[in-house]
Each structure stands twice: as C-alpha cells, then as structure tokens.
C-alpha cells in the first residue's frame, strides 16, 4: 500500500504539518494531490480527503456525535461498558484499545472514567486520532476525558507481546479489539461514504487471529472483541461469553475461564 501524502495550504499551520509528517512518517507534499487519497491539514483540523467521491474523514471528540454521546450517552449501562466489565465495578479497569481507529470506542470508555491506552498501527488513522486528541485536550468540555487517553503509534501484536512479559500487576486488565474484517456485515458499515475512504486507505486487518492470541496472553482480566451482530468471530479461540446487541456483538474472552479446549485448531 502506498504512503498517504500530507498536504497543508495554511501557512500558519506549516510547522504543525511538518511535525505530523515527521511523527507519523507521512510524505509532506507541496501541492494538493489531484487524485487518490491524502491527508489535508486545514485551519481547524486534519482530514482524510479524496477528489469528489466521499466526504472528508476525521476523528472528532468535541463536536457532533461525540458531543451527543458525552451528553446523552448510556453511562455504565451501555453495551460497550458492560462488555469491558464496568457495570457494578468498584474500580475502573486499565484498558488497552488495541485497534483504536478514529478513537470512537476509546472515547466512550474514557468518558466513563477509564484510563485508555490507544494502539494504532496505521499512520493515517494515528495522525487523525492524534489531531483529534490535541483539539480535545484544549477544549474545556473534553480536556479531562482527553487526559485519560494515551495514543501509541504501534502494531498492537508487538506491543502486547511485550506487555505479556511484565509482572501481572503492570499488565492491562482489559484489551479491546475491533478489527476491520473482510466480511459482508462490514461492507454494509462501509457503505457509509466516509468509512469507504478510511477502509480503502487502511485495508482489512488480516492478522486478527494473531492479535487475539497475543491480547489473551497480555490481558489479566478479559479480551473484548467488537463485531457486527452477524459477523463471524475471530478464528482460533472460542469466546467465553457473547453479548448480543442490536447491530453490534461483543465476544468476551474471560482469561480465568479460558481452557485449553477453547483454543480451536492448535496443537
Ligand atoms: C475498525 S477500526 C477500529 C474502530 C474503532 N474501534 C473506533 O471506534 O473508531 C480498526 C483499526 O484497527 C487498526 N489495527 C488493526 N490491527 C492492528 C494492530 N495489530 N495494531 C494496531 N492497530 C491495528 C486498523 O489500522 C484500524 O484503524
């Protein structure tokens, strides 16, 4: 896959563009591309754009859907909160979001008070997330939430493998996994115009089974896999619990409950 270029037409933001390009190894171009996909740093925010076809894609924690979720969200009763074990919990778990994407799930969990470490391997998604986090960290309504969110631009398989070597009490309690799957349900989700662009640039996550196995070795409490309601589970290990929702399902791999026979197809 080609590196996605970064373009900035705003002279006042050139330094920011240079530092984004250096941090995420993005080629900084002097002219706006006339085809394909590129990141564009405008006066307000960083966006993934393309000629004509789709609307811009960006991560957002302050306005729009994030604002609505902050103000009207379902608290600890909402499915994602139940899936990570917040309902009735005395202490909030340390969460690693191994597939942070545009940070939507991490933001919900951080809004509920959890410390969330966000891992993202795609330079494009990581740059969009970084930009949204910077904006959220200076806005009075979101700065406390943003302070609980830490972004690490890394492959979660490598990062979690290192965590698995740490003493038990330093390891994450919950690892959250929401990969981009090459299956039919995801195609309908991708029909949302902007997501097509995101998916085109980032591609499918073909190594989810390895990610799940590594997550299970690193987590001390549970691994939570988010799937479309009728999506296939990640192959390799059978979930201990399945929480069905209207459009989303959560497959839970509860570390204490996993037995050797749950590891399907392993020697
Ligand atoms: C479906 S998106 C996640 C969406 C996210 N839950 C949200 O709310 O915005 C999947 C993301 O996981 C990332 N990803 C997949 N496998 C990864 C890995 N091994 N390490 C780090 N990031 C990974 C992809 O680059 C992609 O951005």
UniProtKB/TrEMBL annotation:
**Which superkingdom heads the taxonomic lineage of this protein's source?**
Bacteria
Q: Which GO terms describe its biological process?
A: methylation
Return the Gene3D superfamilies for the record: Vaccinia Virus protein VP39
Asked whether the UniProt record includes rRNA processing among its keywords, one would answer yes
- CDD domains the record matches: AdoMet_MTases (cd02440)
Q: Give the PANTHER family listed for this entry.
A: RIBOSOMAL RNA SMALL SUBUNIT METHYLTRANSFERASE J
Q: Where in the cell is it found?
A: Cytoplasm
| Gene label | rsmJ
EC number assigned by the record: 2.1.1.242
Q: Which GO terms describe its molecular function?
A: methyltransferase activity
Query: What is the name listed in the Swiss-Prot or TrEMBL entry for this protein?
Result: Ribosomal RNA small subunit methyltransferase J
Q: Which UniProt keywords apply?
A: Cytoplasm, Methyltransferase, rRNA processing, S-adenosyl-L-methionine, Transferase
**Is the Cytoplasm keyword given for this protein?**
yes
Native organism is: Vogesella aquatica
What positions does the entry give for S-adenosyl-L-methionine binding? 120-121, 178
Question: Which reaction does this chain catalyze?
Answer: guanosine(1516) in 16S rRNA + S-adenosyl-L-methionine = N(2)-methylguanosine(1516) in 16S rRNA + S-adenosyl-L-homocysteine + H(+)
Q: What class of enzyme is it?
A: transferase
InterPro entries assigned? 16SrRNA_methylTrfase_J, SAM-dependent_MTases_sf
Q: What does this protein do?
A: Specifically methylates the guanosine in position 1516 of 16S rRNA.
Family the UniProt entry places it in? Belongs to the methyltransferase superfamily. RsmJ family.
């Amino acid at each position: 896959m080609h590196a996605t270029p970064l373009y900035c037409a705003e002279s006042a933001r050139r330094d920011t563009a240079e530092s984004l390009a250096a941090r995420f190894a993005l080629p900084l171009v002097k002219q706006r591309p006339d085809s394909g996909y590129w990141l564009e740093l405008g006066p307000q925010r960083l966006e993934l754009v393309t000629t004509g076809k789709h609307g811009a894609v960006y991560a957002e924690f302050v306005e729009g859907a994030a604002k609505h979720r902050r103000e009207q969200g379902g608290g600890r009763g909402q499915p994602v909160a139940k899936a990570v074990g917040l309902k009735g919990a005395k202490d909030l778990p340390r969460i690693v979001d191994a597939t942070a994407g545009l940070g939507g799930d991490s933001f919900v969990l951080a809004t509920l008070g959890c410390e969330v470490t966000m891992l993202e391997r795609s330079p494009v998604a990581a740059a969009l997330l970084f930009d949204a986090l910077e904006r959220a960290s200076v806005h009075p309504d979101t700065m406390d939430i943003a302070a609980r969110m830490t972004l690490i631009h890394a492959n979660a398989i490598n990062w979690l493998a290192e965590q698995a070597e740490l003493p038990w009490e330093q390891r994450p309690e919950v690892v959250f996994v929401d990969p981009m799957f090459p299956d039919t349900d995801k195609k309908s989700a991708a029909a949302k115009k902007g997501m097509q662009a995101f998916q085109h640039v980032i591609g499918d996550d073909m190594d989810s089974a390895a990610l799940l196995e590594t997550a299970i070795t690193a987590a001390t409490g549970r691994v939570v896999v988010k799937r479309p309601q009728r999506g296939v589970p990640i192959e390799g290990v059978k979930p201990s619990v399945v929480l069905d929702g209207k459009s989303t399902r959560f497959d839970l791999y509860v570390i204490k409950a996993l037995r050797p026979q749950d590891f399907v197809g392993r020697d």
